[in-house]
Amino acid sequence: MVKFTVEELRRIMDMKHNIRNMSVIAHVDHGKSTLTDSLVAAAGIIAQEVAGDVRMTDTRQDEAERGITIKSTGISLYYEMSDESLKNYKGERNGNEYLINLIDSPGHVDFSSEVTAALRITDGALVVVDCVEGVCVQTETVLRQALGERIRPVLTVNKMDRCFLELQVEGEEAYQTFLRVIENANVIMATYEDPLLGDVQVYPEKGTVAFSAGLHGWAFTLTNFAKMYATKFGVDEAKMMERLWGENYFDPTTKKWTSKHTGSPTCKRGFVQFCYEPIKQIISTCMNDQKDKLWPMLQKLGVTMKSDEKELVGKALMKRVMQTWLPASNALLEMMIFHLPSPSKAQKYRVENLYEGPLDDIYATAIRNCDPEGPLMLYVSKMIPASDKGRFFAFGRVFSGRVATGMKVRIMGPNYVPGQKKDLYVKSVQRTVIWMGKKQESVEDVPCGNTVAMVGLDQYITKNATLTNEKEVDAHPIRAMKFSVSPVVRVAVQCKVASDLPKLVEGLKRLAKSDPMVVCAIEESGEHIVAGAGELHLEICLKDLQEDFMGGAEIVVSDPVVSFRETVLEKSCRTVMSKSPNKHNRLYMEARPMEDGLAEAIDEGRIGPRDDPKVRAKILSEEFGWDKDLAKKIWCFGPETTGPNMVVDMCKGVQYLNEIKDSVVAGFQWASKEGALAEENMRAICFEVCDVVLHADAIHRGGGQVIPTARRVIYASQLTAKPRLLEPVYLVEIQAPEQALGGIYGVLNQKRGHVFEELQRPGTPLYNIKAYLPVIESFGFSSTLRAATSGQAFPQCVFDHWDMMSSDPLEPGTQAAQLVSDIRKRKGLKEQMTPLSEYEDKL
Amino acid sequence: MDFESNYEISRTADFIRTRNFTKVALQFPDELLKESTRVAKALRNELGKGVRLYVMADAAYGSCCVDEIGASHVDADCVVHYGHACMSPTSTLLALFVFGKASIDVNACAKSLRHCLSTANKPILVLYGLEYAHALENLKTVVAELLQLSVSNSGVHFAEVACSSINPSGDKMTDKKQLYSHNGVSDNEEVHKYEDGNTSLISVNCNTLEPCTKYSLGGLIWTMPVGHKMEDYLLLWIGSENPAFTNVVLTFNNCEIVRYDAEESNLLKDFADQRRILKRRYYLVEKAKDANIVGILVGTLGVAGYLRIIQQMKELIEGAGKKSYTLVMGRPNSAKLANFLECDVFVYVSCAQTALLDSKEFLAPVITPFEAVLAFSRGSKWTGEYVINFQDLTASTTSDVVNDTEEARFSFIQGGYVEDIRPLENGGEHKETSLALAEATEKALNLQNQCTDSVLFKGKATSGAEFFAARSFQGLNMQYENPLPQSYVIGRTGRASGYEDEK
């Protein structure tokens, strides 16, 4: 069945100009996996007839059931191109054989960490956009991610079949829709101007945009049609292509091209006249079973059908005809081979993004030149669970050198610091493996420019790592990946049978390894926590945990838990004071909320503990209106020394103050991690040390006296500054037809959400709604929404910001007070908050 | 209850007289201190002038332990310990325990017991606070009457008080001590000598009849036929919710447990708090795994074998590639512990009933030696078993931990895999020499360029010296802007709770 052998595949791997590493990225349900199928089919791994239905790259059972992709799946494909089709290819090549290492990625926002991992190891991206729905929020996100990694994109406008069958739009209208899709995508891409990457925008007339119908397995680029008509009109292909897009009109009666619509009814846009209409005609003829008309038409197009295929009727016939006439694989492959870079080309400009070390050392040079004889540089971007439970393949990309079975490699983990022994192992690769469809094939070695899976390293690689040769001790690691989503939804898990605890612990470790985004942690109360990017992500993780990593041992999962933040509304109403246990030292403090945007600036790392004080002072005084001198007196950030709270020294002329600084900071780190309300992290609070009275003897003002006091006075100042809770809020994007809007608004209102943008997509009956929704209300939101709109609305939720809850948690009976007491109960704390009098001392 | 019998004056006098002791220390917990003069007077009346009695109170550690150091200040021959006791073996002195006699409604208790027996379809094991030991015989008879069966085959088993006096288990004795048994519970039978037939000398004749497993916990001992597991029994605890009870709940965390509150005369079944303690301890163990510097807190100077366990802890910690410091600070409190900011975790070596120290006020967690073993030996897993008494630990921690895996350790605190500092391969070079400190400081100074915050506040320091080097305050700075001496100012006067200028 498979048209190619491992030997063939292995042979092309050495031809670095004939390799394309690409990922397929898109919004959820825009047809990535389906489109991938037709490419896989062309390689002969699955039958052409079932392409579009199999979803080859959805290897997991739950993926198949839900009809969504969850994990990114790699597949290596081999194609032999004809000389004819390659005659216009200007780049370097070695023969006509090509190797495509393709990675199908999930489109749901919850799994965008998978996309990040896929992008790192590829050089090009096929961006799939639904021609009706257009560019959606996730299209935008993944495009940004891709461009950030210097991945060159090509676009395909997918689900063309909807235009013909479902919506039955006219040529000009369809053209406008496509144009808008492409323009929208280009707007995003244009913001990522990168001199090294060059122009990344896509143009149909240059062949970087394809039009496809993944479900039916056909696609075309303007190149296809240009070739067809070039001879007919006697112009060259390039010229023809330009005529087939944009403001070029053709009037068959006058046989003239114009750049404006002449007004004559027969005058039509080039694209409509020569691409859209013929397809439309063929499709309608097929659908109406007008076979007598069909055969001559096909003959004219040079399409020959097999005799048994001629028996088909309706949709099946249409599918078959279109597949034969405009096979998706041809158009898409040609686009990839022509317009996506080969590893050797891509690594020239990607090396800057990838390599952490000096860009002139031998490793950088080897990556830049994609040198198979150079030192090994390999980045492992994800761990793929193997069939034997608990083991993993390390999946990654060889950037230079080659990796071989049995080779000893240096494994540099994410915490590795060059020159130190931390997070560093030397181990040998048991086996190198390449993916061919659903099965893996062992190969002797894999040279640079290819993706590879390795066996035997899973114990030493946590999530990702850089591998080099054993002896290359001065190599720096490849830069770690940044993820665009953060885990905000958490559940507590415990095993049903207490003695299964070791299994649970082991399972959680495995889970953490298999997914780059999930966080497995433990709460102060001793509960195991699994945190994910969203409800769906969490659901999948828990399923994996129970079935794959714990051998089916039963687990009990709590309701989803959302973490809150504690902040203050105003400046403390008075300066509060706390005394040390020996009563000899006093700290005076006030709390105040941070200026708007400051906490976010700290989150983003624009302001942080490692800044040059002068630079920091400049930003603080210019953007946030701080006094310049004050900006230099920031003692620390917290929690974890980097968090969005700080302590500022406002004292004047206090003796020994420097001596207790570390102790106060330690107390602050502690207190800011566990706020006074519900022991949630604090956020956006600035604590000002107003005055300090210290005992004259150093022994009486040691850490033991000052640390607990600092903690108490911080709590006291928080409680006197109108403490408030912050709740996490999602940005929700929903796309739905007009009749579903009522239902959407209803559900959103009921869930405390509010809509801040409603746009109709031009040319479609679809509306785009953007809303804010508290995370705590989002559980079950998708299903409620689906029910309320009879399945027409599908939301995408991404964490957006922290929102202050207006009610006062100190006032009994309010919503915030209820929340505080719930959290305290869950954490096993006293339900009553510790009163201010416990923290504040009087003279 | 009358004074004479509550404090067992005559028995105590007999005990002293038969052994011809001349100096006897009477140890009282704080709550009984007010009775101490009466007790001493009564004893003196019994014993006459030949015996000198000393009243001791305010023990440095828990009042449940025998304060041997205090007693040796007066060179006492023995200690009479009053009130709640943990029955930890002593290391040098003979001790007699007077538990006191708390009142209990035996009939009500027996009825509750019958109720338990009828609802639970498993045998019941009765455990109790030592202050209720006096009512045991009485209870047994009442229960037997109530069930109209003999106690032995009614499905109700009673634990017995091991002894009411403890002979020091010197080194000779500890060598003999057999610490064994698959579930890590030790048999202290050989340690104690049952000198006093009065209270309850249990018959060990079951040894001869059928093989059985012996259990001992907090001064109670009981036996169980081989093949029976503790989980097969329903535990009934008579007494209040004190550390002794917590120990029972934690040690037998797999068992179903009910508590009979003798003061309220009712049965309680909800022990969410105690269960929560176990989970919390689990968290502390996970947290301890991340520690680089460990403080060993000496929480007892009397309990037999404490020096050995401290040594063992040191070795364990060193073996795990961490740094340990031994601290003697009396009873720990948050202020004392916070003086050692560099310690990421403390291991508290003390008697079983004071072992569980946990407070929101502590900056660093305080764990027991058993938890330390779990935390610091790679590859060991928490299986639910819990040992509080460190004597039970000494033998069971043979280093059978498989060390073949080199996989990075998964830290549940940080939610990811972390790299541990691996134990130094050639430890010989890194002995505690005078140079070691200098080297560590030097290394730490090299780190100065890095952000010291992570060393100071995130437990990244690997030794005390490194921590000190990272501190922002490096001693008084002599280069003041103004080198001229400043004129003197008059300071405050008065007491710290309110200086005179503040009144």
UniProtKB/TrEMBL annotation, chain A:
GO molecular function, one term: ribosome binding
UniProt gene name: LOC105047447
Record lineage: Eukaryota, Viridiplantae, Streptophyta, Embryophyta, Tracheophyta
Keywords (A to Z) from UniProt: Cytoplasm, Elongation factor, GTP-binding, Nucleotide-binding, Protein biosynthesis
Cytoplasm keyword on record: yes
Cellular component per GO, a single term: ribonucleoprotein complex
Localization: Cytoplasm
PROSITE patterns: G_TR_1, G_TR_2
Transmembrane stretches, start-end: none
Domain named Tr-type G: residues: 17-344
Protein name: Elongation factor 2
UniProtKB/TrEMBL annotation, chain B:
UniProtKB keywords: Iron, Iron-sulfur, Metal-binding
Keyword Iron-sulfur: yes
KW Phosphoprotein (keyword) present: no
InterPro entries membership: DHP2 (IPR010014), DPH1/DPH2 (IPR016435), DPH1/DPH2_1 (IPR042263), DPH1/DPH2_3 (IPR042265)
Record-annotated membrane-spanning stretches: none
GO MF term set: 2-(3-amino-3-carboxypropyl)histidine synthase activity; iron-sulfur cluster binding; metal ion binding
Pathway linked to the protein: Protein modification; peptidyl-diphthamide biosynthesis
Short name of one Pfam family: Diphthamide_syn
Cofactor(s) it depends on: [4Fe-4S] cluster
Protein task: Required for the first step of diphthamide biosynthesis, a post-translational modification of histidine which occurs in elongation factor 2. DPH1 and DPH2 transfer a 3-amino-3-carboxypropyl (ACP) group from S-adenosyl-L-methionine (SAM) to a histidine residue, the reaction is assisted by a reduction system comprising DPH3 and a NADH-dependent reductase. Facilitates the reduction of the catalytic iron-sulfur cluster found in the DPH1 subunit.
Assigned protein family: Belongs to the DPH1/DPH2 family. DPH2 subfamily.
Listed name of the protein: 2-(3-amino-3-carboxypropyl)histidine synthase subunit 2
Source taxonomy: Eukaryota, Viridiplantae, Streptophyta, Embryophyta, Tracheophyta
Gene: LOC105051465
